Amino acid sequence: MDKLICKCGHENPPGTILCESCGRPLNEQEQDKKLADMRYEGTARRSQTYNKSIIDKIWNFFSSVKVGVGIIIILLIAAALGTILPQKQYVPATTEADIEAYYTDIYGSVGTVYHALGFHDLYNSFWFISLVGMLAISLIIASLDRFVPLYKSLKNQRVLRHSSFMHKQRIVAEGPGDADTLKKAEEKLTGLKYKVSTDKNGLLAEKGRFSRWGPYVNHIGLIIFLFGVMLRMMPGFYVDETLWIREGETRAIPDAPGYVLESKGFTLETYTGEGEEEKFGEAIDRVGTVAKNYQTDVVLYKIPEGALPGDTADMEVVEEHAIRVNQPFKFDGYALYQMDFQQDELKTMSFELQNKETSESRGELTIDLVNPETTYELEDGSVVELLGYYPDFSGFENGEPQTATPLPKNPGFLVKMTTPDTPDGETSFITIQNTVEPLGDNDYKLAFQGVETRDASGLTVRKDRTLPILGLGGLIFMIGVAQGMYFNHRRFWIQQQADGSILLAGHTNKNWFGLKKDLDQVTEHASLPTYRDQQEDMEAQEKREGEQLT
Amino acid sequence: MTLADISSNLLYVAFIAYLIATFVFGGAVKGNKKGTFRSEQRWGKVAITITVIGFLAQVGYFITRWVVTGHAPISNMFEFTTAFGMTLVGGFIILFALYKTAVLGMIVLPIALLIIAYASMFPSEVSPLIPALQTNWLAIHVITVVVAEGILAISAAAGLIYLLKVVDQKKKSKQRFWLEAIMYSLVLVLGFVVTSTFFTLTNYEADFAYVNKDGQPSEITYNMPAIFGMNEFEPMTDGALTPLVEMPPIVHAGKLTTVFWSLVVGTVLYALIRLVFRKRISAMLQPFTKNVNLQLMDEINYRSVIIGFPIFSLGALIFAMIWAQIAWSRFWGWDPKEVWALVTFLFYAAYLHLRLGRGWAGEKSAWLAVIGFVIIMFNLVAVNLIIAGLHSYA
Predict the structure, then answer these.
(1) Residues B75, B79, B81, B85: what is their CA dihedral angle, to the nearest 10 degrees?
(2) CA torsion A224→A133→B331→A100, rounded to 10°?
(3) Residue A106 and residue B213: Cβ atoms within 8 Å?
(4) What DSSP letter does each residue of A371-395 carry, written as one string?
(5) Where are the alpha helices (DSSP H) in B124-252?
(6) Beta strands in A186-287 (DSSP E)
(7) Do B127 and A283 touch (CB under 8 A)?
C-alpha cells in the first residue's frame, strides 16, 4: 500500500485516518463525520490496515476487542463449569481409577459424565490452558496494535492543526480575540498545571497524557502475572512436597537439600468456652468443638557442606520454631506450612508369644510400626520372623495382603514363629483383633499386649521463586488500572488567526465535565469566545427532531 | 446491658431506620409530581438524615461487635452479609451527597434491608475463629471485598432504576420479562425471611436420623416442616411431618426443604401482590422513575464500576492470593469461592471492555450491572451454601 500524502505535504503511513501533522481527515468517510474519531488519534493501526496474509488475519483476530471479550466470556463460563462438582484435588481418592469411581458413586450419572468430559480436572485441561494462552496473546496483540501508533502520534503531535481538525472536536470555540489573548490563556493553563507549547500563532496545552497508557500498563501487569504462573513449570522455581513427621522423628526435608527437620511434638488446642472465651460458649455448644490452634514444634538442622548424604552426625541447629496455621516457618527461600495432622497414630505394638493350650509365655516383642525389624529373638531360642508388614492393611488381592497407604493405620503382620517345640516354624497373619493361620492350625500365637501412640504432623514444603514476579504483575496491574481510570488526558488547541480571531478546540479521553471546568476558568481569565459542546448540541437536536416526529 | 446486647440493638435501630427511610424516599419521589425538585429535596433531606442515623447505628454495631468478639466481625455468613448491607448503604450515602438522587435510596434501601434480613436468618452468636482465620488478613481481605461488593451493588441499583424507566411495560418483551424476574427473585428472598422467621418464632424442630453420602449414620434438625427427607431418614421427633419424598445422598434435603418453603411462600406473596395491585411490580415502580435523569443513572452505574472494580481486584484477588499463600501454602487452588471471585473479575472486565471499546452504555450497561450483582449474590449465597469448599464458614 502507498503512503498517504496530506494536503499539508506530510507523508502518513497507509491506513492513517487523521493526518499526523495537521489533523486533516484523510478519507471521505472521516470527512463526512461531524466529529473526528479521536480514540487512537486517527492513527494507522495495523489491524485496520492490512488483511492479506495469514499473519495479518491472526493479528487482526487477536487485536479485536470483540474477540478479547469473547475469550473472557468463554473463560468465565468454563471456570464456572468447574465448580459444579468438586475438582479432583478436593476428592478423597488418589488413584485415577478411584477418582473415576468416586464421581460415579457419589454423583451418579451426572458424575460419570462430568468425569468423562474431563471437568474433574478442568483447570489443568489442555483446552482451558489454551484459552488462557489465547487471552494472553490477545492482551499482547491488542495492546501493541493500539499502543505503538498512539505513542508515536502523541509524541510527534504538532501545535498547529488544520481548522477542519479543530472544527471536528467536541469542544469548539470561535470568535474575536485580543492581542494578548494567547498570552493570557497560556498563563492560566500553565497555572492549571497544563504543559503548554507554542508555535507561531498557536498553542497546545496538554495534561495527563500518561493516563492514556493506563490500559497498556495494566495489560503488561497481567502478562507478567501469567508469565510468572507459567514459569513455575520450570524446574527449580517451584517446590510442592508433603512431609509427614511424627513426634520425636528427625527427617530430611524433601527437595530442600542439606536441611533436616526434627519434630518436638504436635499440639491441637480447642476453644474451651471458659474464662476469656465464655462469650463463645453459645457458638461452641451449637457446633461442638472448635479448633483454636494447630501447631508443630520443630528444630531445623543443616548438614554442613561436603558431608556425605545421610551423614547426620555433624548437623547444626539452625533454629527452633513453632509452625502454626497462618504462620509458616520460612528459611532460605523455603517455607514449611502446618497443613494436616494425625493424632494418636500407632507407634509400636507389643505381643507375647504364647502356647495356645497352656498359655505359657515364650517372651514378649515390641514392633516399631515405622521401622520394624525382620527378626525378634525371644527366650530359649524362640524367634519371631516378620515375613511381611502391611502398615495400612486393606485386604487381599490374588492371595497377597495389600496396604492402602504407608501410614500405620491398620497394621498387618505376616510372621513366622519358631520355638523349641515347633522347630519348623508356624506361619500366622495378624491384624488388629484377627488372626489367620494360612498353613493349618498352629500351636503358638502372638497375643496382643498393647500399643504406644504418638501424633504426626502433615507439613507442606514450599518454595516458590515466582512469587516476586506475580507480586510485580499484580502491582503493575493495579497501577495501570488506577492510571487509566482515575486520571484523564486533556488537551486544548488555540490559534489566533490572521484577522485576530480565536479558534479553540478541546479534547479529553474521559470526564468532559472536568475539561469544561478547566476551560471555564481559562475562558474567564483570557476572555476567550464562548465554547460549545458539539456532541450535546447534536443530541439535543436529535431529541428535538424526535419530539417533532411524535 | 452488656456490650454484646448494645451491639445487636444497634443493628435493630439501623434496620428500622432503613425501613422508615425507604418510605420517606418513596414519598419524596412520588410527591414530586410536577418535576419541580423542591418537595423532593425537602423530603429527601429528611430521608437521608434517617438513613445516616441508621448507618451510624450500624457502624456502631460493627465496632462494638468487633470489640466483643476480638476480631473483625466478618467471619461468618451473618457477619459478612450484614456488613455487605452496611457498605451498600454507605456507598449510597456518598452518592446521595454528590447527586441528590432520592430515587436511588428508594431502591438501594429495600435491597439493603433484604440483605440484612437474610443475614439474620443465620446463627448470629459471636463465634471463635478457627486457626485458618486467625490473622489480620481476615480484616484486610474481607473488608476490602465487602466494600467493593457494596459499591458494585450500587451500580446494579442504578442500572435497575435505568431499566425500570426505559423498559416498556405496555409491550410484551424479553426485557419486560427479565426485569419482572428480578423483582420476583427479590420477593423470593422476602419469602425466605418470612418463612424462617415464622418457624423460628414458633420454635419448629424435627430431628431425623439419616445416612450421609459417605455411608455414615448422622442426625439432622429441620427448622421447617420436612418436605424432602434425607437419604434413608428415620423420624426422631413425634408428631413432626414425615417427609413426602426421600432424596439421594448427595442432595441436602434439609436445605432443599428450606428452598422449597421459601419458593412457595415467596410465590404466594408475589401472587398476592399481583392480585391486589393488578400490575407487575416493575410497572408499579415505573411511575417513581418518571423524573429520573437517565444519563445520571448511567453515569452512577459506570462510576460505581470503575471504583468498585479496582477495589474488588485488590481485595478479592490480590489480598486473597497473599493470604491464601500464607494460610494454605498456595495463592490459588481453584476452590469454588476463588473461581467465582475470578468469574466476577472477568465479568466486570468484560463490562468495561464492552463499554469503553464497543460503546455499550445506557440500557446494555444497565443490564450488565444487574447481571454483575446476580453473580456477586451467587458467590455469596450459592457458593457458600450449595457448593461446599474451603470458604464454607456459615
Answers:
(1) -130
(2) -170
(3) yes
(4) S--SEEE-GGG-EEEEEEEETBEEE
(5) 136-166, 174-201
(6) 195-199, 202-207, 238-246, 250-252, 259-270
(7) yes
Backbone φ and ψ of A38, nearest 5°: -100, 10
**Of the candidates B146, B125, B122, which has an alpha carbon nearest to the alpha carbon of residue B69?**
B125
Nearest to B135 by CA among A276, A462, A321, A325: A325
Closest CA to B265 of B203, B205, B202, B194: B194
Residues from chain A that touch B333, judged by Cβ atoms under 8 A, are 89
**Cα distance between residue B233 and residue B210, in whole Å:** 4
Contacts of A124 in chain B (CB under 8 A): none
For residue A180 the three cell numbers come to 494578548
- Residue B226 to residue B244: CA distance in whole angstroms: 8
- Which chain A residues contact residue B384 at CB under 8 A? none
Q: At A525, which helix (H) or strand (E)? A: helix A512-526
Cβ neighbors of B146 (< 8 A, separation 6 or more) are: B74, B80, B83, B84, B87
- The helix, strand and coil proportions of chain A, stated in percent and rounded to the nearest 5, come to 35, 30, 30
Q: Which residues pair with A348 in a beta bridge?
A: A368, A452
Angle of the B362-385 helix axis to the B136-166 helix axis, nearest 10: 140
pLDDT per position in chain A (550 positions), as tens? Answer: 678 888 888 888 888 888 888 888 888 888 888 888 888 888 888 888 888 888 899 999 999 999 999 999 999 999 999 998 889 888 888 888 889 998 888 888 888 999 999 999 999 999 999 999 999 999 999 999 999 999 988 988 889 998 889 999 999 999 998 888 899 999 999 999 999 999 888 999 999 999 999 999 999 999 999 999 988 888 888 888 999 998 888 888 998 888 999 999 999 999 988 888 888 888 888 888 889 999 999 999 998 877 766 666 778 899 999 999 999 999 998 999 999 998 888 889 999 988 888 888 888 999 998 889 999 988 788 899 999 999 988 888 888 888 888 888 889 999 999 888 888 888 999 988 888 888 888 888 888 888 888 888 999 999 999 999 999 999 999 999 999 999 999 999 999 988 889 999 999 988 888 899 999 999 999 889 999 999 888 888 887 887 776 5
Residue A138 has a CB neighbour count (10 Å cut-off) of 22
Q: How many CB atoms lie within 10 A of CB B187?
A: 20
Mutation target vs B (from A47, A325, A509; most B CBs, 10 A cutoff): A325
Cβ contacts of A326 on chain B, cutoff 8 Å = 131-132, 134-135, 137, 326-327
Q: Where are the beta strands (DSSP E) in B212-351?
A: 217-222, 228-229, 234-235, 245-246
Contacts of A425 (CB under 8 A, 6+ apart): A385, A416, A417, A418
ipTM, two decimals, is 0.89
Q: Distance between CA A264 and CA B216 in Å, rounded?
A: 35
The CA radius of gyration of chain B, in Å to the nearest whole number, is 22
Residue A170 and residue A347: Cα distance in Å, rounded?
Answer: 82
Chain B residue nearest residue A284, CA to CA: B127
Residue of chain B with shortest Cα separation from A39: B357
Which of B57, B66, B106 lies closest to B86, judged by CA? B57
In the block, residue with C-alpha cell 525371644? A378
The C-alpha cell that represents B125 in the structure block: 452468636
Please tell me the distance from the alpha carbon of residue A35 to that of residue A30, in angstroms, as a whole number.
Answer: 9
Question: A218 and A477 in contact (C-beta within 8 Å)?
Answer: yes
Q: Do A82 and B340 touch (CB under 8 A)?
A: no
Residue B168 three-state SS: coil
DSSP annotation of A276 reads G
Residues near A176 by beta carbon (within 8 Å), at least 6 away in sequence:
A500, A501, A502, A529
A485 CA: distance to closest CA in chain B (Å): 7
